[in-house]
Amino acid sequence: DGGITQSPKYLFRKEGQNVTLSCEQNLNHDAMYWYRQDPGQGLRLIYYSQIVNDFQKGDIAEGYSVSREKKESFPLTVTSAQKNPTAFYLCASRQGFLNTEAFFGQGTRLTVV
Amino acid sequence: GQQVMQIPQYQHVQEGEDFTTYCNSSTTLSNIQWYKQRPGGHPVFLIQLVKSGEVKKQKRLTFQFGEAKKNSSLHITATQTTDVGTYFCAGLDQGAQKLVFGQGTRLTINP
């Protein structure tokens, strides 16, 4: 079954702790993306990656870090420097060339208390 | 940097009424994509427009891409309760594979 998997679905962390969100895809897609969604708001781009071992900052990268050591995996770390980390995080992937759609994971809802 | 603006933010209609959401980019786009997110779900791809002035239809949904490839619209004719959700446009810039989403329009429907 091909797809993109995010885990866990719900995550609770104490303030000041780093936390890593998992994103795995078996679609053989080159490009992967992380978005943040706050209640009633749109999708804001955190980081994206076009190929292995390369990634670019999106519009709200501060307080986040990523890695792309394998084509299938694009984990996102929410660091203690992120001032307001509670949000719904969505990972997406797409083929690396133009005119292809993005496929999303089910999302991870992170709550920091 | 590239910005994609979408209006309105919210729209409430009576079932059977029409609905339109508009999308504008600060830069010329390679293409525009539209997604739908049901409450509690994740965005799902609806359609992609590539050519200047392109119009595509999916049953009651009509999508348009502007001549300058900087704006787009989604129009739903005779809304049904199954149309409830948030509709997003997303623009892909012309080189960097950066996929930027608009703020979305949340559609609610009174049956």
Rounded mean pLDDT score of chain A: 93
**CA(first)-CA(last) distance of chain A:** 36 Å
Number of strands of chain A: 11
Low-confidence stretches of chain A: none
**Helix count of chain A?**
0
Mean pLDDT of chain B: 94
Question: How would a textbook summarize the main sheet of chain A?
Answer: 7 strands, mixed
- Cα end-to-end separation of chain B: 41 Å
Order of helices and strands of chain B: EEEEEEEEEEE
Instruction: Tell me which protein chains meet in the greatest interface and how many residues each side has.
Output: A-B, 27 and 26 residues
Shape of chain B: globular
Helix/strand/pairing category of chain B = mainly beta
Fraction of helical residues of chain A:
under 10%
Summing up helix and strand content along with how strands pair, one would put the structural category of chain A as: mainly beta
Explain this structure.
The complex is a heterodimer of chains A (113) and B (111). Chain A has strands spanning 4-7, 10-13, 19-25, 31-37, 43-51, 54-57, 64-66, 76-78, 87-94, 103-104, 108-112. Chain A is an all-beta fold. In chain A, the strands form two sheets. In chain A, strands 2, 4, 5, 6, 9, 10 and 11 form a seven-stranded mixed sheet that branches. Chain B has 111 residues and is mostly beta strands. Chain B has no helices and eleven strands. In chain B, strands 2, 4, 5, 9, 10 and 11 form a six-stranded mixed sheet that branches. In chain B, strands 1-3-8-7-6 form a five-stranded antiparallel sheet, with no helix packed on it. The chains are: A mainly beta (113), B mainly beta (111). The interface between A and B is medium-sized, with 27 and 26 residues.
